[in-house]
């Protein structure tokens, strides 16, 4: 479909820079664009890598090098509404959010697709390491990128199914070293730019940022098996499932993991390693990249970006969510994270992990255990 007009999202990084260059080489009419997320009162050390004023300058310079027009699009209000606000709300609910998933779903492949159409563009292109596969019947599938170390399909499960035919991934079939080589060969100023690993709007540690946004609230740490109070805490938002360090338990010689967070009663529940194993999961807010009737009964599911997918059986699936049973129990599956479904390399969709339905013991101060000497 060369000759078609494409809006290429440019972040000021090497992947999107090379994407714009490859599209131009292929004969597309490329329009470069960057989404402005940082506010006027940008805090120090936030938005300092991707999505920063410096990155916008670099993206504009690269657009000049490639020979395409460039626009800086104002999405500050949408970013605050869809990303920053829900990020804090999820921690207040005792969940662990993934803002990059929300950003791709609610902003880049929703708001940006609409903007592309307003600018007369048929396609939106990004520098994600995702492989776009077009079938003989014209349907489009997303598959894992050819570089397994960089595959980013995990973040795109929320893409509207109807948008798939209009999204391009020019570097999806390349490995990262080759992308940098192409940038070097063309003299692009982003060729050696390091990658951003942090959440763009969070300065420093996530725990410190959450502490600024949510007030401390003293509560009990309780044993999941007995209901005994075995410690105290300053807020469920400071804990994650599976955590075993820094719990400050009265009986510190006992190895315990966080197995459940209950902001409603301000309780952190701890237990043995086995108490942190999940036999399956329930997901809500589902999105499918195929017709629901075509969803296979046996799938692979990935519950964190850096974990390997595991086999699972679909027990139930509807438009709102799905329920899975793992082939083998999985440790510390965190509510608020994404459960992303695959058939081999093909991305099928996903949903947000919901919590276990637990029968919790009754807690009282009279069940507090003695402080060990």
TrEMBL record:
InterPro entries: MnmA-like, MnmA-like_C, MnmA-like_central, MnmA-like_central_sf, Rossmann-like_a/b/a_fold. It is an enzyme of class 2 (transferase). Keywords: ATP-binding, Cytoplasm, Disulfide bond, Nucleotide-binding, RNA-binding, Transferase, tRNA processing, tRNA-binding. It catalyses: S-sulfanyl-L-cysteinyl-[protein] + uridine(34) in tRNA + AH2 + ATP = 2-thiouridine(34) in tRNA + L-cysteinyl-[protein] + A + AMP + diphosphate + H(+). Pfam families: tRNA_Me_trans, tRNA_Me_trans_C, tRNA_Me_trans_M. Residues 207-272 form the tRNA-specific 2-thiouridylase MnmA-like central domain. Its EC number is 2.8.1.13. It is found in: Cytoplasm. The active site is at 103 (nucleophile), 200 (cysteine persulfide intermediate). ATP binds at residues 9-16, 35, 127. Belongs to the MnmA/TRMU family. NCBIfam families: PRK00143.1, trmU. Catalyzes the 2-thiolation of uridine at the wobble position (U34) of tRNA, leading to the formation of s(2)U34. This is tRNA-specific 2-thiouridylase MnmA. It comes from Deinococcus aetherius. The gene is mnmA.
